[in-house]
Amino acid sequence: MPKIKKKGQAGAAKNYITRTQAVKKLQLSLPDFRKLCIWKGIYPREPRNKKKVSKSATASTTFYYTKDIQYLLHEPLLQKFRDQKVLEKKISRALGRGDVSDAARFERHAARPEATGKPRYTLNHIIRERYPTFNDALRDLDDCLSMLFLFANLPSTSAVPAKMIARCERLCLEFQHYLIVSHSLRKSFLSIKGIYYQANIQGEDILWLVPYKFNQRIVGDVDFRIMGTFVEFYMTLLGFVNYRLYSSIGLKYPPKFDQLKDENGAELGAFSLEGVNMATQGETKAVTSGEEQQQGPDPKVQAEVDKIIKQLKEDESKNDETAEEDAEADDEEKPTDAIDKFEPVAPGGDVLPQPAYSSNDPSQLFANFTFYLSRETPRQPLEFILRAFGCKRIGWDSVLGEGAFTNDESDPSITHHIIDRPVVQAVASEEGDGEDNQTAQKVGPNQRYPGRIYVQPQWVWDCVNDEELKSPELYAPGAALPPHLSPFVKAAPGQYDPTLPLEAQQTEAEAIEAELEDAEKDGAEEGSDVENDMDVDDAEDDEDEEEGDEEEEEEAEDEEMEEDEEESKTLQRQLELEAELQGKKVQNKKVDSKTKAKLEQRKALEKKAKEEAEDLERAKGMLSKKKRKLFEQMQYTNNKKSAQDEKLRAKRRKLEKEKAQKA
Amino acid sequence: MPVLKPLSGDGEAPKQFKQPSRKGKKAWRKNVDVTEVEQGLDELNAQIIKGGVIAEKKSEELFAIDVKPDTELTKKLPKQLRKPLKADEILAQRSAVPAVSLKKRPAPETSGKVTDGVLPSKRLRATYVTQKELSRLKRVADGHHTTTVEVVDATFDAWADPAEEKKKKQVEETFNFLPKAEKPKAPKTLTQQPISLAATGKQLPAVPKPKGDKSYNPAFTDYSERYQEELRKAEEAEKKRLEELEKERLKQEAAARSRAEAEAAEKRAELSEWEDDSAWEGAESDAEGLAKKKRPERKTQAQRNKIKRRKAEEQRLKHEAAIKKKEAEAARVKQIAKELAEKERQLALQKAENPEEDDASMEEDDEVELRRRQLGKFKLPEKDLELVLPDELQDSLRLLKPEGNLLKDRYRNMLLRGKVEARRHIPFKKQAKTKVTEKWTFKDFTLD
């Protein structure tokens, strides 16, 4: 007879443990247990069969792996939690006896660890445990950054102490400084929720969301104890990440923090970064540009360089070039047109990457501009993005806080002015062309300074996402802005993309078709006029259109398309017919050499397509039945999609043509 | 004097009522029991004889207050009780000088200094605890302490190369002959990903990549698509709500109708009881019918055989049906396999067609299909609708009205990724319900 197995002695019943059992085993209170689980990364689990796991009659709700909990028993933090529990007991006993002053004393001493010799705890050891490599930490940075940026923007309440908020803010600013120096910000997106940023750090794409200022309501259904626990952990994590990132580009961590400037709202400007090896010289230098050493240099070589620098300092003439590598810091910095060149001073010294006015380098997109942010624009995101893309000189209204390059709006060095206010009517009529805003001499309610470009904030985002300077006319104040598209959506090849010009996205066949059509319309203008009239209204405001209308249009277009095909296929005959209808002579000459060439081209293309199709058919024969079916279905949907895209493109072509005709 | 008695009754055996019959005019008066009245009158007479009615007398006449001590009584007590204890005597002694307080006091400012002997006018109470502080202490005692994590600036690289540390350790170990205590190994389960609440079971991104429709200044096609989608969703929800309301209404109507019918039937029954005499006959005949019902006769052998045959036949049919069903299912196996293959093919097709949509990073949190069984007792909270209405849609950043609540969003995302289980805010502790009752023993308590 086999050994009788008892229920609940093996298998799932042993592998899982209920939450109550776990709490009892660890001798903790439930909130403390929750905290510990969050910090150590122990998540609730689900057994396949709940009934087999729990012995109690009532259904337990949360289970953990027994091994996880067993491992938690070795956690050094556990002792700290127990100490806290002991303290709580002491206090409650004293309060129960009425010894209020004793209770206060216990609490005071616990809060003053240097007096009691019991230090408060840090989460340092957990960081390495949770994230064995730095890349693991970077991978989890999405959540961390979103949380910390969110908490940095919360109003302080009893649940969220001001200290925590200040700490979050500081860590976030430090991180932003790294992104600025290393030029690792890639994309940014203005959404209705907040501003998305994407950076690429050591090959990892990191995406986070920053709320708009002064918008966060505290709601009741969010558990702040849990959120606070996460934030405590993430604060420690970001601290270490920052340390690592700073030291990877040869900067000292933590950067110098100016309390006074911070109180005046300098934000990013309150920090001054120092190089690691400069500290040995005893002088601090603000370094915020990307012209830094990429790795920590060889100490010997560095010493040699230092010596030479000292020598150079004595004679005044040369010291600008080398010692003051970059005096940009914040506001003291002066705009210079020339770019400094950095040459290795000693043999074997680091070769610094040379700054260049190349338009290809997206990290230097705004390098040679001076910006001025007007009062109504969001300063923090704009400052961050502009700096991250190479801009050194940003001025703003003094209302927006300290740390500006200039507070004077009329500064002649300003090249770009970011503005987001409606245009007063009188002036609006003047600058109908869109170019006027740059040259307008008038200084009135809509003060315009000559020689600078006025743009709306979206220009900055669109420039950054497309990695090129967009035409500022489209973004002039008062102009209807082009849609702000998500940079995270990648258009599939052949898909209709409203941002690209037609030439860039249409297929060859389509282009030829269109040109043929043109030629044909030149021949018979009467017909084209009639056709055009049908779709004039869709040039108007798109948003007012109803769905039904659109469908109708599409149908109409379908017909047209078919018509077009027929026409072009038998162009000759068609022409004859039309001529007949109009009571004219057959105009064979109209089919000039150009059209002929096109026709031939098309023929060739069709032939090619046919051949390709045949090849495909042959190749399909080689496939297994299953794969062939899959392939066919794929082709079918692809064709459907591409037909849709083609329709959209045709529509746009028509609109553009109309515009050209009107102009 | 209180006396315990049985729970009810007067403790005597049950008996007949004593009052004799009062049939007939004579017997009526003669037989009235007047013993109580007579007793009372007798008592009154006795009181008058003894010196007047007690109820009419003043209390001074009835009682006297004894103010003289009974000297004899103390003599009767034993000697050791008459004298107070020595200990009590000692304790009763009081010094003219007040006792030194045992309270701790702060030392004089410069200890050893000779004061002028004049006490400071106001003594500072160093140990005074304000009411606010006290309430905070109470909260701390309840476990609501503020954070104890010390967040300091990072001063070392947490991911520094561990090789150097190892070397150091090895050097140490060569001179150490005691085996080092081994560190506990982390179990494999610790590295397992949390259970995501997505139906697909895939890990969800912490920050989903936003699509074009979430833009503050969206492209028309993106926005209209999203808007229509939301519209459709809202319509569906509304339809569902209305349907439920209708269902509820129908249910209530049906309940009301049946209630009314029942009432009407009751009324009719009452009426018939009082007015329709004819109903009696029917009832009687019914009762008779019941009474007359024949007792089942003994089954004959033929009958038994018949029943046996029927049962066997039934059994056979049942068995055949089961076999048939089994065969049909076996035949369907192929079909099921085909269906599964088809499903798989569809999935593969989707994957091949748009490999980018395959990764969940483009899916918004509210678009994720949730798994049926969620973690914990509570449901995942609904996500806020993040949509700018068409009339609020502005193409200026200044005029943008941000939508959604990021705090909620983050919290929901945590839950969605299974990092924690959903909780509900409980504003106050559940109080134990109490119900006041009287003990039943009060019935046993009488005053005699």
Automatic annotation (TrEMBL), chain A:
It comes from the Eukaryota. Residues 311-359, 508-663 are annotated as: Disordered. Residues 311-321, 589-620 have a biased composition (Basic and acidic residues). Residues 361-477 form the BRCT domain. Its main location: nucleus. Keywords: Coiled coil, Nucleus, Ribosome biogenesis, rRNA processing. CDD domains: BRCT_pescadillo_like. The keyword Nucleus applies. Residues 322-334, 510-567 have a biased composition (Acidic residues). GO terms for molecular function: ribonucleoprotein complex binding; RNA binding. SUPFAM superfamilies: BRCT domain (SSF52113). It is found in: Nucleus, Nucleolus; Nucleus, Nucleoplasm. GO terms for biological process: maturation of 5.8S rRNA from tricistronic rRNA transcript (SSU-rRNA, 5.8S rRNA, LSU-rRNA); maturation of LSU-rRNA from tricistronic rRNA transcript (SSU-rRNA, 5.8S rRNA, LSU-rRNA). The keyword Metal-binding does not apply. InterPro entries: BRCT_dom, BRCT_dom_sf, PES. GO terms for cellular component: nucleoplasm; PeBoW complex; preribosome, large subunit precursor. HAMAP family: Pescadillo (MF_03028). Component of the NOP7 complex, which is required for maturation of the 25S and 5.8S ribosomal RNAs and formation of the 60S ribosome. Component of the NOP7 complex, composed of ERB1, NOP7 and YTM1. Within the NOP7 complex ERB1 appears to interact directly with NOP7 and YTM1. The NOP7 complex also associates with the 66S pre-ribosome. Belongs to the pescadillo family. This is Pescadillo homolog. It comes from Sordaria brevicollis. The gene is NOP7.
From TrEMBL, chain B:
The keyword Nucleus applies. Residues 20-29 have a biased composition (Basic residues). It is found in: Nucleus, Nucleolus; Nucleus, Nucleoplasm. GO terms for biological process: ribosomal large subunit assembly; rRNA processing. Residues 246-271, 311-346 have a biased composition (Basic and acidic residues). Belongs to the NOP53 family. May play a role in ribosome biogenesis. This is Ribosome biogenesis protein NOP53. It comes from Sordaria brevicollis.
